[in-house]
Amino acid sequence: FSIQQDYFADENRVLKKDPQQDYHLEYAMENSTHTILAFSRELHTCDTNDKSITESTVRVIWAYHYKDMGEAGQNYHGPNRGTKSLRLLNPEKEEVLSASLPYFDLTNKDVPVPDKDTTYWCQMFKIPVQHEKHHVTKVEPLIQKGHENLVHHILLYQCSSNLNDSVLDYGHECYHPNMPDSFLTCETVIFAWAIGGEGFTYPPHVGLSIGTAADPQFVLMEVHYDNPSYTEGLIDNSGLRLIYTPVLRKYDAGVIEAGLWVSLFHNIPPGMPEFVSEGHCTLECLEEALGAERPAGIHVFAVLLHAHLAGRAIRMRHFHNGEEQKLLAYDDEFDFNFQEFQYLKEERIILPGDNLITECHYSTVDRIRMTWVRKVLM
Length: 378
Description:
The protein is 2% helix and 40% strand. The protein contains 1 helix and 28 strands. It has 3 domains: 7-86, no CATH class; 103-252, Sandwich (Jelly Rolls); 267-372, Jelly Rolls, CATH 2.60.120.230. The mean pLDDT is 87.
């Protein structure tokens, strides 16, 4: 391992040794099946050949050859290569052992996915935990094997408690003129998952409340199917697993949505290398929405930035008393296939009368038709 060094690739993808060596090997080990290397470097090296590491998504590329590098240089990796999107500075989740905790699943049953680009499918469920308060501590996606690129995102809405079990009998395409009237009672988002994300673990002092009269009795699960190849005959059984505990946490969790709502007035022209749209959660909006939270406001502990294929960067800006605060969350290297919650290093307080601006950067340079924005940003 004495020849481990700092390299970079030029515009022709040729690998070259970097004159400024910023790569530091911490340790290495090897057995008959694995080679493990641990290395470190500064987040900002002031080296033009290095990419700064920020809170944005980082696309890590890797390649290897079965032979060690010789004096003549590296061996060509052939097919032994790949890429993975990561958020290197996302704080580690404080994982609570959930193997022994009870759970329930909300999953679709043999949904026929239409052979069209985009489908939103809605199914009503009844929360099985009732009559006593519990806290959901973790939510895991249950994506049918082979459908990892078909299921784009899943939203869970709280519905009216005045419904009866007859609403559970069928699912239907969302936002359709013939969808059941009961779907219109489901307005409050209580959880969201998007493509590429893993399970979401709530902080140790927070949980999603279920089981009381004020908690969700009926929920609507909205699944967005992305089928750009118009594949026929797809049947899906994806959904969510909710893990819960009777040991209550100090605070109840909720969701606040901000961004650009579905609107025919929001569209993006073709051929644009950059196009910026803003969604404003105004002073008046937060004054009304957070009125019941006076004077403490709400504490934000995680943010999910959500966009579609044209999305390139997203920034959530926060203003208090007219002064802009540190960005609540951002991703300047947005990856459509890697959308997971950003856990904040420190909880941020949002007060009635604050402002939130969701800044969305798009690129349509490779498109010849107008792009219509179809879904809200979380």
